[in-house]
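Re: the 412-residue chain
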Amino acid sequence: GSVLDLVQRNYVEEIPPQDLIYGAVQGMLTTLDPHSSFMKPEDYKELQIETKGSFTGIGIEISLNKDGILTVVSPIEGTPAYKAGLKANDKILKIGDNTTKNMTLIESVKLLRGSKGTDVTISIYREGWRRIKDITLTRDVVPIISVRSKMLEEGYGYIRISNFQDNTSSEMKKALKQLEKGKGLKGLVLDLRNNPGGLLEQAVEVADVFLKKGLIVYTDGRIEEQKMRFEAHPDEHLHNYSIAVLVNEGSASASEIVAGALQDHKRAIVLGVQTFGKGSVQTVIPLEDGSAVRLTTARYYTPNGRSIQAKGIEPDIEVPYTPLEKPKEKDEIFHFMTERDLEGHLINEDESIKDELNPVKDEKDKPEAVDSEVDNGEETQPPPTDNQLEEAVRILKAWAIFTQVKSEKAVK
């Protein structure tokens, strides 16, 4: 109260009290962690629209790294940003004439979004580039098609989940039904690469499709209401085929819940590279004036009790993505941003002591992640250069042969 009174009485210009209060609340929340924030009424409305499946903008998931630099987590497939070639870990230094230094995420999103057909120029720096590049993008409606599917070859299906929104689980069930027609499936590739997450309950429902029983995920917070357990339910429709889950550094939050649950239950083999490591739960709390607070209220844990926070999911088989072109000698293959790189990130409780004894290795030698396949709604064959996908199919085939031999021996 005293600071508010002081500012109102002495500041050089008159400021509406609500603006001061909003600013103070935002400042308080940003000191907590990278994911807690305040949303003005118009921002909260935008969030509600986005989770329903579309918004108007350039189509990228962004965050602030530990140095406070606006950074691309992943582009959304088929969007202006994706078509322009933006990649995970690109640094956005300017939006139009506005420098992004000291800019909040919400302020950045406001500048990136706008009416369909309008242009926005962003200044991008990528490790290995000799200079900053200006890229002009035309805003468009970004339909978030969260589920895409296709038959890779007879007996082997492919489902790509790009994020978890309101209808993701129902769309995935439809895709599975289509793939299982005819002779059925011997194996399924579930692609969660560059999936930044989304709704917790949708991640639970997706994992539930492939699990007959047992714990999927549990959350633990300071208050009893945040201590929740999500269990799998028996389903009359059996999906008895083998599953390979693809993950990379852009797989975060809800996608890590799915990968972790299937891995702990030994229901799927996880391939790729270590995931992002966002193991915290945010609760959106609406306020009376139409604004809302997004607050980190709990950590989530896999069925075996693993905390993913700032650590991620370790794949069963590490398969780094092999870029189509090798970088020039002087160019570096950039290090992907993970939760550990975000300013003010929550520390993994299990790792706080270990980190002092085992410093994190320099990851600059990690190869860059695969671009999500371009898919405009049509079913096309995946690019033959996707070595991670090829390895997943190879392992599924080997497992099918092993299962058949084991079954034949049992009959004898």
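The first helix runs from residue 2 to 10.
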